[in-house]
Amino acid sequence: MSSTSTNLSNADVLKIAKLAHITLKDEEINTLATELSSIISYIGKLDELDTSSVAPMNQVTGLRNVTRGDEITPETVLTQEEALSNAPQKKNNLFEVDAVFDND
């Protein structure tokens, strides 16, 4: 397999910038197109590796995350009043928070 060259256009860079909510100056666009193209081509070299003798795996350390059981105990349960006692904003006996996402 040979690696193929990836050349991002200025339009590609502007689209990526929009998705990342990044504002770019005009002089940055050409530079980023070149640099991102180089990075993508470099990553593409991984396609050239022969991994046929490598066993599929999802982690390599053998460590396991041990968690406690999901048990409700009376001493750790707050009443609704206790839970809301320090809330800066409440509405209908619930926590009220500012919107996180835009509607566009």
How confident overall, as mean pLDDT?
89
Outline: flat
What is the helix content? 25-40%
Structural class of the secondary elements?
A: mainly alpha
Widest beta sheet: strand line-up: 1-2
Note the beta-strand portion.
Answer: under 5%
Q: List the uncertain runs.
A: none
Q: Helix count?
A: 3
Main β sheet profile: 2 strands, antiparallel
How many β-strand runs?
Answer: 2
Q: Tell me the span between the first and last alpha carbons.
A: 43 Å
Spell out the helices and strands N to C. Answer: HHHEE
Roughly how many Å is the radius of gyration?
25 Å
Q: What does this protein look like?
A:
- With 104 residues, this protein is mostly helical.
- It has a domain at 10-48.
- The protein is built from three helices and two strands; from the N terminus they run H-H-H-E-E.
- Strands 1-2 form a two-stranded antiparallel ribbon.
Summarize the structure.
This protein is mostly helical and 104 residues long.
Descriptive tags:
single chain; 104 residues; mainly alpha; two-stranded antiparallel sheet; 3 helices; 2 strands; flat
Secondary structure layout plus pairing:
Layout: H1 10-19, H2 26-44, H3 80-84, E1 90-91, E2 94-95
Antiparallel strand pairs: 1-2
Helix pairs in contact: 1-2
